[in-house]
Amino acid sequence: MNIAVITGASSGMGKEFVKRLFDEKDAVLGAPFDEIWMIARSKDKLSALKESLGNTRTRVLPLDLTDTASIEALSTLLSVEKPAIRLLINCAGMGKSGKFSKQTASDTHNAIALNCDALSCVTRTCLPYMTGLSGKRSGTIINIASSAGFLPQPGFAVYAASKSYVISFSRALREELKKENISVTCVCPGPVDTDFIKVSRNDPNATFTGIKAKFVTTTDKLIPASIKAAKKGKGMLVFGLGQKALHLASKILPTSWILFFERGSV
Ligand SMILES: NC(=O)c1ccc[n+]([C@@H]2O[C@H](COP(=O)([O-])OP(=O)(O)OC[C@H]3O[C@@H](n4cnc5c(N)ncnc54)[C@H](OP(=O)(O)O)[C@@H]3O)[C@@H](O)[C@H]2O)c1
Q: Which CATH topology does 2-262 take?
């Protein structure tokens, strides 16, 4: 059984990936998929997505990825079903905005546990089922990082640091997995119009403000571009001109200058 595993599938980018990949045909991604395994905590949202796709070829896996028992449950399921995982998309992620000193211990823990630990553990759990598969490519991994990972971000310190981890991890993993014919693409978007900002600010009406508001993109632009980059086997997709400029600035400007420009964002 050829499958795609998508975390964070109940909302935003992950949900858009499910919808776009449901009828994917490109063999380089290992498509067509017999099933897409959709992971998130919200069983109701995942079930609604499954229903909207005709209750076929998707599997609802309501798991809290910050709980090690969930990783064990995924591992057990894989060992029983032994699918060929052709595509893994690590999309689940969150971060609380505001000064670090005002964050609760669980705000900090949850962001690191989900963005870094769970992403690595899901990848480790899936890899044995991605290796040694026949075809143009054995497997593909898409990790969703963020342009926040290019720079330290006062006011979003833990989240930005966690996304630096995702970028670094993805780059190293890409090199390690070349011999296995597994491609790793790291996607670095700027602000995207999803529930992310609402979760981040604990406010159901929150929207991006300030300079970030000028660079907001949508999942219907970002996700097709991400799939295209993964098909081409690109190591990194920095999405949008503004984010490309930020990426360049992060490489050529001293960090102290960047932190100076960021003053006032907290
Ligand atoms: N939106 C942006 O501006 C932006 C920009 C750059 C990067 N990103 C990154 O893009 C990725 C997708 O975010 P999004 O914008 O699509 O936000 P979103 O709409 O809030 O989606 C986040 C997803 O993560 C899942 N999730 C959260 N906590 C989880 C947990 N403990 N266990 C399992 N799943 C969990 C959520 O599902 P449940 O709540 O049902 O568990 C949801 O499906 C994240 O990694 C985010 O950091 C977002």
A: Rossmann fold (3.40.50)
